[in-house]
């Protein structure tokens, strides 16, 4: 297969080995430049500048990196994205802020196949605030549609919570249409971009999105436990207050005064001390996506997923494997899920062969294809290994 982005694969640690990595949508490979950056940071910035680093760069890093993520990956103008906390904590902050901004409304709309954390946090917020969850039933091989949301929202809806790319099926939701449906009902909408950012072009400003959150260890290759990011549309920044009132979100963090007053702008969504080391790898990957261009990254992603589906049809269908992801590229994110009753055992055996997909119930082998670090040859070898095991 022709691959105009093939040369970029050499920039990733481990890409020159025989290991087949189908889990880039869970944890991306590190960039080689990051190894040098981390070493230099320990010796020069941390070891050399010590606490002076906060005044020189670190204090503003969540905002400067947030702006870069927004510009390169999210279609978000400056001052609306900040890096902080984990996805779970940021989901909680945004949900609480959103329902507080819609007083008198009593429901949160969310689909039953949304990522577990999103569902768990929504359940907790609903119980804390005396609200009701309005569950949307979806097809697990597809996902949330504007029509399903329209049937669920009403004058009671405070917030709609949706994933842009479904974690199980890779269903790519129609963000502008669903956002319009929520707004027509007078509700806010919160988008989970964990399986989008860095792989699928996202246009938060253009779609009129209110709130969004995403992690950085998948397609942004920030490493295990790297911090998440949060987007709050500029029109909401002065009116929304997040519930975890920490010193870094105060109007003057170093005054250490007796009361909390939220600072202006997106910084108010920071609570505690930023994870500076965890942002370094993210900055490297965002710079690479900027160099390549998110549209070129998406084109490679579509090519990889189409190739995986074609191979599954040719080599695995005769063994009872079905494709549990949308076949249309316009409705599919960056991974493909293959279904078979024995996939849990297949995945365990593949790991022993240095072929690394992941498994999602029921019976789903998830082929996660990180566009800049995955080759077409890798896909060939991985699908061949699945065929051999099933045979």
From TrEMBL:
Q: Which top EC class applies here? A: hydrolase
Query: By its UniProt entry, which Pfam families does this protein fall under?
Result: DegT_DnrJ_EryC1, KYNU_C
Cofactor(s) demanded = pyridoxal 5'-phosphate
Which reaction(s) does the protein catalyse, per the Swiss-Prot or TrEMBL entry? 3-hydroxy-L-kynurenine + H2O = 3-hydroxyanthranilate + L-alanine + H(+); L-kynurenine + H2O = anthranilate + L-alanine + H(+)
Entry EC number(s): 3.7.1.3
User: What are the protein's GO molecular function terms?
Assistant: kynureninase activity; pyridoxal phosphate binding; transaminase activity
This protein's pathway? Amino-acid degradation; L-kynurenine degradation; L-alanine and anthranilate from L-kynurenine: step 1/1; Cofactor biosynthesis; NAD(+) biosynthesis; quinolinate from L-kynurenine: step 2/3
Keywords, in A-Z order: Aminotransferase, Hydrolase, Pyridine nucleotide biosynthesis, Pyridoxal phosphate, Transferase
* One GO process term, biological-process aspect: L-tryptophan catabolic process to kynurenine
GO CC field: cytoplasm
Q: Which SUPFAM superfamilies match?
A: PLP-dependent transferases
Subunit-structure text: Homodimer.
Q: What biological function has been recorded for the protein in this entry?
A: Catalyzes the cleavage of L-kynurenine (L-Kyn) and L-3-hydroxykynurenine (L-3OHKyn) into anthranilic acid (AA) and 3-hydroxyanthranilic acid (3-OHAA), respectively.
The entry sums up its family as follows: Belongs to the kynureninase family.
* PANTHER family per record: KYNURENINASE (PTHR14084:SF0)
UniProt name for this protein: Kynureninase
Which species does this protein come from? Answer: Nocardioides islandensis
């Amino acid at each position: 297969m022709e691959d105009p982005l093939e040369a970029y694969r050499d920039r990733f640690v481990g890409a020159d080995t025989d290991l087949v990595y189908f889990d880039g949508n869970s944890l991306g490979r590190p960039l080689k430049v990051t190894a040098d950056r981390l070493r230099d940071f320990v010796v020069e910035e941390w070891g050399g500048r010590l606490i002076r680093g906060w005044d020189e760069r670190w204090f503003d890093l969540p905002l400067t990196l947030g702006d870069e993520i927004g510009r390169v990956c999210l279609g978000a103008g400056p001052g609306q994205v900040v890096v902080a906390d984990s996805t779970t904590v940021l989901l909680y902050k945004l949900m609480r802020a959103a329902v507080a901004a819609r007083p008198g409304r009593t429901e949160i709309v969310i689909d039953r196949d949304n990522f577990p954390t999103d569902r768990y946090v929504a359940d907790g917020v609903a119980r804390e605030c005396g609200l009701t969850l309005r569950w949307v039933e979806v097809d697990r091989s597809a996902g949330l549609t504007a029509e399903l949301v329209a049937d669920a929202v009403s004058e009671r809806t405070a917030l709609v919570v949706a994933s842009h790319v479904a974690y199980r099926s890779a269903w790519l939701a129609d963000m502008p249409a669903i956002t319009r449906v929520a707004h027509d009902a007078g509700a806010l909408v919160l988008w989970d971009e964990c399986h989008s950012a860095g792989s699928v072009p996202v246009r938060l400003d253009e779609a009129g999105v209110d709130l969004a959150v995403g992690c950085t260890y998948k397609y942004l290759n920030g490493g295990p436990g790297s911090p998440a990011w949060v987007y709050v549309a500029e029109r909401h920044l002065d009116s929304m207050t997040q519930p975890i009132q920490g010193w870094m979100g105060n109007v003057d963090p170093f005054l250490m005064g007796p009361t909390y007053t939220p600072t202006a702008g997106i910084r108010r969504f920071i609570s505690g001390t930023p994870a500076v080391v965890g942002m370094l790898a993210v900055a490297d990957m965002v710079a690479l996506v900027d160099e390549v261009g998110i549209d070129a990254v998406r084109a490679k992603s579509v090519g990889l997923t189409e190739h995986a589906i074609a191979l599954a049809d040719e080599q695995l269908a005769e063994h009872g494997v079905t494709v549990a992801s949308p076949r249309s590229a316009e409705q599919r994110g960056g991974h493909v899920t293959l279904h078979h009753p024995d996939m849990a055992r297949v995945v365990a055996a593949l790991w022993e062969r240095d072929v690394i997909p992941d498994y999602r119930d029921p019976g789903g082998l998830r082929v996660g294809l990180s566009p800049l670090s995955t080759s077409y040859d890798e896909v060939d070898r991985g699908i061949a290994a699945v065929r051999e095991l099933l045979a």
